[in-house]
Hints:
Blueprint: E1 2-5, E2 8-12, E3 15-16, E4 29-31, E5 37-39, H1 44-66, E6 71-77, E7 101-102, H2 105-109, E8 115-120, H3 125-134, H4 137-147, E9 151-156, E10 158-159, H5 167-185, E11 189-191, E12 202-203, H6 207-220
Amino acid sequence: AVGLVGSEMCIRDRCFYPGHAPFNQTEGTFAAPNGRSYDLATQKRQLADEGGIHHINMCADAVHKVFPGVLINVNVFTYAAVGRTGPDDFHLDSAGWRNRVPFRPVAIARSKADMVDVHFYSGSLDQYRRDLASIEFDRLNQTASAAGKPLIVGEFGLFEGQFNDDFDAGCRFLRNKWLPALRQDWGGWLYWTYDTHEQPRLWNAAHDDYAIFRILAGQLTHEK
């Protein structure tokens, strides 16, 4: 999905599908839209990286023809979020929604995107660390820094089921653990969502008299 909001163009949740061609092939070559050919036995990650960059750059060039100064934001979920160890993991999973491979954040940092935006629904610090490891966070940080591009979390939130429907436990985790970690690791973040009550599996910021919103505001002012 591609959307334009204000002065930022968003290429949202870009991913590949390992159950479909060419990623479901184990031999042969694939002539990609970028004009290069790839060995499907040994070069799937390279195909994914360079194919993703080609896609982002084409979108960026098209948008800049109409809106020259617009910023390009490309956002993805983590590999761990869909049960993958990292960018080399193209296995097929029994759960259909897991059969996605996100664009590699390191590759996004090398594209014409102006920022790298990763989404998290970790639920625990251990899971957050697995999410970070799966996106090669240290390498990503170095690559983005060298390119002068910020790293942001354009979407994170709390699923009720992660905390056995215990809202107080979710708030404690958010205030005491997750937000301090995000402040340390990322250049900015946005909570999902402010008041989307029609999405009941996630606690929004307006839930329980804006309790989460007040936690977020407190973190911004370094409130203890």
